[in-house]
Amino acid sequence: MTSGNQDQGSNLFNKPQNMKRMNDPDGAAFITGLCGDTMEIYLEVGNGTVKNATFFTDGCESSILCGSTAASLANGKSLDDILEISPSDIIKTCGNIPQDHIHCTILAVSTLHKALADYLLKKQYG
Ligand code: FES
Questions:
Q1: Residue 61 reports pLDDT greater than 80
Q2: What mean pLDDT value characterizes the chain?
Q3: C-alpha 48 to ligand 1 mean position (Å)
Q4: 4-121 sits in which CATH class?
Q5: What angle do CA 100, 105, 108 make, to 5 degrees?
Q6: What is the pLDDT of residues 1-26, one digit of tens each?
Q7: Contact 114 CB / ligand 1 (< 6 Å)
Q8: Are 12 and 69 in contact (CB under 8 A)?
Q9: Is the minimum distance from the CB of 60 to ligand 1 under 6 angstroms?
Q10: Ligand 1 atom having least distance to the Cα of 57
Q11: What is the spatial distance between Cα 29 and Cα 43, in angstroms, rounded to a whole number?
Q12: 12-45 exposure pattern, b = at least 16 Cβ within 10 A, e = fewer
């Protein structure tokens, strides 16, 4: 028997519909983790809210799951709420991140926050 969280995590991995690069995003970032995998996050922002978030990675199954979850958690959130998203939120949402892949959650959230910073800097300095 699986929990609801595990089902959600499984769905995000099996059907990562949000795994795609975005043309002309309002904010974007990529980070190469210490493991060598790269995470990319793209944000479309309107009225102080994330209208759409997508991700792309060349990494492992866990990085796909974590990137997909980070983008899903960002969708519909205010910019302030994006800052509240943590690696713990990804672990709670997925429920099945192996201990030796917890760093994937940090990579995904770090990239999400960097994409938000990119948006804020573009807005401030054009
Ligand atoms: Fe590097 Fe998953 S092993 S992000």
A1: yes
A2: 90
A3: 31
A4: alpha beta
A5: 135
A6: 333 444 455 555 566 889 999 999 99
A7: no
A8: yes
A9: yes
A10: 4
A11: 9
A12: bbeebebbeebeebbbbbbbebeeebbbbbbbbb
Record the pTM.
0.88
What span, in angstroms and rounded, lies between the C-alpha atoms of 38 and 82?
21
Residues 98 and 66: beta-carbon distance below 8 Å: no
Q: What is the pLDDT of residue 70?
A: 97
What average pLDDT does the segment 78-97 reach?
95
The residue ranges of DSSP E strands in the chain, in sequence order, are 27-32, 38-46, 49-57
Is-contact 39 31, C-beta < 8 A? yes
**Backbone dihedral region of 109: left (phi > 0), alpha (psi from -120 to 50 degrees) or beta?**
alpha
Tell me if 106 CB under 6 Å of ligand 1: no
Question: Residue type for 40, please?
Answer: E
At residue 81, what is the residue type? D
pLDDT at residue 15, rounded to an integer: 60
